Amino acid sequence: MSHTVFACQGLSKSFGPVKALNDFSISLNEGEVRALLGKNGAGKSTLVNLISGSYQPDSGTMVLDGEPVVWSGPRAAQSGGVAVVHQEFSLVPGLSVSENITLGRWPKKAGLIDRRQERQLAKKALGRLGVEIPLAALVGSLPLAEQQIVEIAKALVEEPKVLILDEPSSALNSREVEALIALVRRLAESGMTIIYVSHRMKEIPLVADTLTILRDGDEVITDEVSRVTSEQVAEYISGEQTAKATFEKRDRRSEPAVLEVRDLHVSDRVHGVSFTLHKGEVLGLAGLLGSGRTEILQAIFGIQPTAEGHVIVNGVKYRRRTARKMLNKGVAYISEDRKGSGIVPQLGVGENILFTARGRVLPKVWINSDKESALVDEAFRGTSIRASSPLQEIGTLSGGNQQKAVIGRALVADMKVLLLDEPTRGVDVQAKAQVYSIVRGLADKGVSSIFVSSELEEIAEVCDRVLVLRDGYIREEIIGNDGTPEKILALAMQQEGNNV
To answer: Looking at residue 500, what is its pLDDT?
Structure first.
């Protein structure tokens, strides 16, 4: 019979007047996978940071294997038996797999790194996951899914009793998510206790035994996954009944062309891609990781140095493109790396919104404060950003509100074409629905979008037309409601010469 591995009682944490976690208690058994759910700002990250030693609780206690614990910091928690794998990787691309797995804990012999023991530790950690990755390979050369495995293996080196996985599938496609879930279940069967944080509701019945839902710092429910329906989960998370929005798919191919891609090549990743985007159209690019989706968007926007081919914007052909040229022509790129290249976390929400709209608020020498304020207000209204004021540091907002601010930047800059790369990565169910509504609402106003996502459900839900990529080629085109997630995945995985 399994025993309790970790428990906490009455954990509370406040930041100024904001109560981030309120009198929270939890009990986890050996081999249990507990899904931790809630929208952005619900208290999930605070709880993870308390359990893993990054924060100190204002009140409450924690017990690990029957012994009370008080962590002085993340390293103490790690040594004590709690490991966390964060959504943002902490890997060094220029180091090998074995060096990354033992990073910060390189074994020493006579004052030098003991390479033999380093490889043994790395091999043992990967062995616990049931996978093989070349230990000498540079991490930067690995596919994203294998980098995720290296990140998890890194957390296993000290053989933790509790493993916390924070949005581990956010960068993976459907097939890779299945492999991740199998890996998590293997760890649980070996006796490891796992806290699994995710916004992807479809994963939860497949990976978790139990779930805990937080809302506004309070526990809403803890129960067995099999006893709660997906509709109930959505209601518990949001605090209200939620109806799934449905969008009318429209065939926009008779509308004027706003952007044309002709014979686009990107080194060995994209091969002779051509397509047309029409006014008011939401065009999906679907495919497995490595199929060339991101490279196409970056090539259009002029930030892929190896790109060859033409892009035609409103009838004007561009062979040599730069980001400035594309922005001036009304084309905006919203990166999948929101924190790395989408925002400046230390600046206010308003400042982040105005980055590419300065030409409209600074027509002359002096700042037009009234116009600046009006544009920020427009972005807040148009995207339903929730912030205390435009001066609030954008890095303190939830992921969903950060993403809405990035889209709001394109809105106030009067962009006509949006290149959206994983626009809902790492945001909660409500924020995803809001992003979908923003994109579709802009389409009704004539703004066109190219929508890239690893979540095929949202590609099918949001896009008027879908181009399916395999190995850097456009293989299929799907119009309207024919684009079911199952059909898109089958076409994305289809081997040449085979029928699926």
So the answer is: 36
